[in-house]
């Protein structure tokens, strides 16, 4: 059992456990009262549960074990969250949100090193670490309300500057809002607002 800011989280087999990147996002959430929030890649549900304290939250994950784990943790914490299984924006096709949260799979993983297990989807970013990040950015605008925001976590190993430039090219004001340095990488939280 993990305890974080009054939230109790049970970890589950085949589900990414909350780690430094999870807490970087959870510690720096920029949620406004009443926001309609989407969290992609919810894992154990910790970030979605914290976000649900002041907003309406939909949480998705490609991993069915994560959806079940997050649902149990939401019940444990009496949090009302809509959980949907699927890849990126597929489960919320046609819907728009005020804030989108995503702790992206950002680690560069070669095709030879790819494990092929469902839990690997939590960190496997493909050979350059950007396979999922770029797909996420491609669908972002069509799922944000005007003036909407995004908070996403990634590693310096997957080219933070490239993400910032892509966001700016899509019409966002984007910045690194928080970061933590580790032995071989810097984990960053990027916050971006649609300039409308």
Can you walk me through this structure?
The chain is of the alpha/beta class and 196 residues long. It has one domain: Vaccinia Virus protein VP39 (Rossmann fold). It has five helices and nine strands; from the N terminus they run ββαβαβαββαβαββ. It has helices spanning 20-27, 46-51, 64-76, 131-140, 160-169, and strands spanning 2-4, 7-9, 36-40, 56-61, 81-85, 97-103, 144-155, 172-181, 186-194. The chain has a seven-stranded mixed β-sheet with strand order 5-4-3-6-7-9-8, with helices on both faces. The chain is globular and about 40 Å long.
What are the defining features of this structure?
196 residues; alpha/beta; Rossmann fold; seven-stranded mixed β-sheet; globular; PrmC-related; Small_mtfrase_dom
